Amino acid sequence: MTQVIKTSEAWRALRTGDLKDHSIGFVPTMGSLHAGHVSLIKRSLQENAITVVSIFVNPTQFNDPKDLERYPRKDEEDLALLRSLQVDYVFFPDYKTLYPDDYQFRVTESIISSIMEGSSRPGHFDGVLTVVMRLLNIIQPSRSYFGEKDYQQYLLIREMVRSFFMPVEIIPCPTVRDADGLALSSRNVLLTPEDRQKAPMLFRLLSSTQSTDAIMIELERHGFHVDYIIDYEGRRFGAVYLGKVRLIDNVPLNETH
Ligand code: PAF
Predict the structure, then answer these.
(1) Which of 31, 163, 206, 249 allows an S-S link to 55, with CB 3.0 to 4.6 Å?
(2) Which residues pair with 29 in a beta bridge?
(3) CATH number at residue 204
(4) Contact 173/146 with Cβ under 8 angstroms?
(5) CA 215–ligand 1 middle distance (angstroms)
(6) Which domain holds residue 108?
(7) How far is the CA of 243 from the centre of ligand 1 (A)?
(8) What's the rounded Cα separation, in Å, for the pair 74 and 76?
(9) Is 231 among the domain residues?
């Protein structure tokens, strides 16, 4: 049976008691779960004795308060889904539980986070790294699972864990896509039907052999507002707006690029 845990003390008692010798897989989320999250959760269920999923819409990683307001939430549906997947524990903290210091202390990285999402969304990665470190310190999992759709986030978390000698394995999982190629994201539900039709063009063009400049021009021509198309560390990354909705994606670069 799925058990909901709300405080760090309640989890710590389990982790140091009944669950002391278990392998623990951890999937941090901001809720609004979709098939991308389900693939991370299924992998954790396969690889660990116990799986913990956290749901926390982390305010410190939203540089735009309107984006935080608009962020979709569906806690009851999420809990029902997690129960149906037979997840062992759901960690459901409030702000005070994760931020007893009101964000006085934070984790900052200065190189990987200076480009792409980091330069377009000031403070975003400080918020992500700080909340992930707090969650990992509370849950103390053996492994933690992150989607490759947020590849820059994955790189930063992998390097944070290495740099701070944190005893957890960070596992990247492939991006899950709709049949037309659009990377699944909780934000996709905010797209208008017309923009939803257009959205897969980002993935199609990133996967093409065109140059980054040509891709930018093509996207703008179709009504996207392009933030960046960049090659970095063997992958091609893109961020665009359709209306107010920000979409990001990335693909591995192969010999044809
Ligand atoms: O990828 C996300 O959903 C969030 O950035 C994370 C890792 C749960 C931290 O809030």
Answers:
(1) 31
(2) 55
(3) 3.30.1300.10
(4) yes
(5) 28
(6) 3-173
(7) 23
(8) 6
(9) yes
**How much is the average pLDDT of 31-47?**
98
Whole-angstrom distance, CA of residue 128 vs CA of residue 152: 11
- Please count the CA atoms within 13 angstroms of the CA of 142 that sit on its side-chain side: 14
Look at the pTM and tell me if it is higher than 0.90. Answer: yes
Give pLDDT tens digits for 150-186: 999 999 999 999 999 999 999 999 999 999 999 999 9
> Per the structure block, which two tokens stand in for 228?
């960046």
Residue 56: the pLDDT is: 98
Terminal-residue alpha carbon distance, the chain: 49
153 lies in some domain: yes
Predicted confidence at residue 256, as pLDDT, reads 56
Pairing of strands 50-55, 89-91: parallel
What residues contact residue 102 under an 8 Å CB cut-off, 6+ apart?
Answer: none
Q: Which two tokens stand for residue 169?
A: 């394995």
In this predicted structure, the answer to whether residue 55 has a pLDDT above a threshold of 70 is: yes
Closest to 6 in 3D by CA, of 74, 79, 63: 79
Residues 6 or more apart in contact with residue 6 via CB below 8 angstroms: 91, 92, 93, 94, 97
How close is the Cα of 136 to the center of ligand 1, in Å? 12
How many helices (H) does the chain have, and how many strands (E)? 11, 9
| In a shared domain, residues 12 and 137 | yes
Mutation to probe ligand 1, out of 44, 71, 91, 132 (largest number of atoms < 8 A from CB) = 132
Residues 77-94 have a mean pLDDT of 98
Phi, psi dihedrals of residue 104, rounded to the nearest 5°: -70, -35
Separation CA 11–CA 39 (nearest Å):
24
State the Cα–Cα distance between residues 4 and 53, nearest whole angstrom.
Answer: 10
